[in-house]
């Protein structure tokens, strides 16, 4: 299992604490320091069953500068969004947990974190 975190994020710290309490084996990826590639983002999105705009933090300053809210959200727009996430990892919603069983979740609450432990 791997968890993508920003150590300054309270939801990330909470998720890591829950994994620790459960005795889970996992790897921490500080995705701001070690950004995912476009291929990795595509793979995670497939595992999540989501589109890139579903995991984009549109309230970030860079999102406003890029005018993301005006971008299209059709299948042909996916590559543009994925490229933006790869170039600006601060736009990626967090934490993301990729489980060993092939699933993945955006673990913003306790129940979602616990869902990958069973």
| CA(first)-CA(last) distance | 12 Å
Overall form: globular
> What helical percentage do the residues reach?
25-40%
Largest sheet: 4 strands, mixed
Please mark out the parts with pLDDT under 50 across 5 or more consecutive residues, or reply none.
Answer: none
Number of strands: 4
Query: What portion of residues belong to β-strands?
Result: 5-15%
Strand order of the largest sheet: 2-1-3-4
Mean pLDDT: 96
Structural class: alpha+beta
SSE pattern: EHEHHHEEH
Protein name: Arsenate reductase family protein
Family: Belongs to the ArsC family.
Pfam families: ArsC (PF03960)
InterPro entries: Arsenate_reductase-like (IPR006660), Thioredoxin-like_sf (IPR036249)
Give me a quick take on this structure.
The chain has 5 helices and 4 strands, in the order E-H-E-H-H-H-E-E-H. With 118 residues, it is of the alpha+beta class.
Structure description:
With 118 residues, the chain is an alpha+beta fold. The chain has 2 domains: 1-31 and 94-118, no CATH class; 39-91, no CATH class. The chain has 5 helices and 4 strands. It has a 4-stranded mixed β-sheet, sandwiched between helices. The longest helix is centred in the first third of the chain and has 12 residues, at 10-21. It is globular, with a radius of gyration of 14 Å. 25% of the residues are buried.
């Amino acid at each position: 299992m791997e968890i993508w975190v920003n150590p300054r994020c309270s939801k990330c710290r909470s998720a890591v604490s829950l994994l620790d309490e459960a005795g889970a084996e996992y790897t921490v990826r500080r995705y701001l320091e070690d950004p995912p590639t476009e291929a990795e983002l595509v793979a995670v999105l497939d595992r999540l069953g989501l589109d890139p705009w579903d995991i984009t933090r549109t309230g970030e300053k860079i999102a406003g500068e890029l005018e993301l809210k005006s971008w299209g959200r059709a299948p042909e727009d996916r590559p543009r969004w994925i490229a933006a996430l790869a170039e600006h990892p601060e736009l990626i919603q967090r934490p993301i947990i990729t489980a060993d069983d092939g699933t993945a979740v955006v673990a913003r609450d306790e129940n979602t974190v616990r869902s990958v432990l069973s």
